[in-house]
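Here comes my example:
=====
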Amino acid sequence: MHSSLTAILAQLKTVVTQLRSAVPNDEPFGNAHNNWSFPGLNRAELIDETESLIKVIEENAIEDIEKDRAAELNDYVRRLKHLHTQTIPNLWGNAGQAVTAFMLTLQGLRRALTKALPLDNHAAATTTLRRLTAQVRSMEARLLDLEPRTTSLTSMVSRIEAAHEAADQLPTDLASLAESRSKLETLLHDSTIDFGRIESLRTQADELDRKLRQSADDAKAVIDRCETAYSAATSVGLAAAFSERSLTLSKSMWFWVAGLIAALAAGSHFGSTQLQSLVSLFTQPNVGTAVIALNLLLSILSVAAPVWFGWLATKQIGQRFRLAEDYAFKASISRAYEGFRREAAKVDKNMEAQLLASALNRLDEQPLRLVESDSHGSPWHEIAASDSVKQALRAVPGFAGQIKELAESAIDAVKSRRTTAQKVAPDQDAA
């Protein structure tokens, strides 16, 4: 596109933009101002007039324009600038003069474009196209009329040429035929020998294929057995691990059983000894309450350690027994899983999946679920933390206070006995 056309196109687009901003609505100027001297045009019509010039430039733009025409078009650039900077801002208030100036300027630009651009190319091209179309149709009719005769002539000429070439090449063809026949006999002999070799190779290939198929079947069977053995080894390994753990817990449980028996024996021995001492005290006359309470306290202390150890051994035995049974149960599941899986696979694939899910659920269970979460230091601690004591503290009014008073009275009694004993000892030394 020529530079002058590009500049005019840019100015026309600016004119459209200025029209949209300077004119507030699409009412005809005369009606909007109720003025007989204003034209009956509106903003949309002025924009259409401008855009029609833009379309003319875009559809008929060329690179080369005559020098005089280019100078005239270049002069319209400053005219359009004056139009959108001076005329259009006054268009709404003074439409009588501004619209006339606007339309006359665009008409002058249209005449200049008509002189500079080849606007009639389309009509000339249409006329030429019609004339050429008529000529082509006339030639096509002549060719269709000649086509049947040219077909027979072409075939006749082809046969004549073929016969002439055959007559010229007949001696050469006979010699070539004899030579080719000799070559064919040689090739036939060689191909017969090669065919025998191919048959032998085919037989060997069939034998190798049979052996390969047999080897593939054997390998598949070995893989199946390996997979079965791997599954069985996994089950056996799990079962052995669980059995080993169960056996270890069972063995350790017997040590605690022996400790429990020893604790019971020690408790029985110390208890019977202290009981005989208490019985002998009760048979003596004028025995003080302090002496009886002191012996009773010593009796309780003498059996406290065996009782505490017996309580601890009982809890350990119970926990280890539960853990050993849990590991033994998991070992049984591991041993029996492979057999159950094969039988389930024969019946239903879903049953096999359910069996696997059930076995995994059992094997995933943590052994610590069987171990008590609370770790009590003594039987008294366990009794104090029991639900029964907690319910008694909540249900019985003053139960906690009574326990506290009882403990304080016991402590005071022990302190008073110690004080009495300390006073009696110096008197006995003085005597």
Remarks:
- Residues 3-119 form one domain.
- The chain has a mean pLDDT of 74.
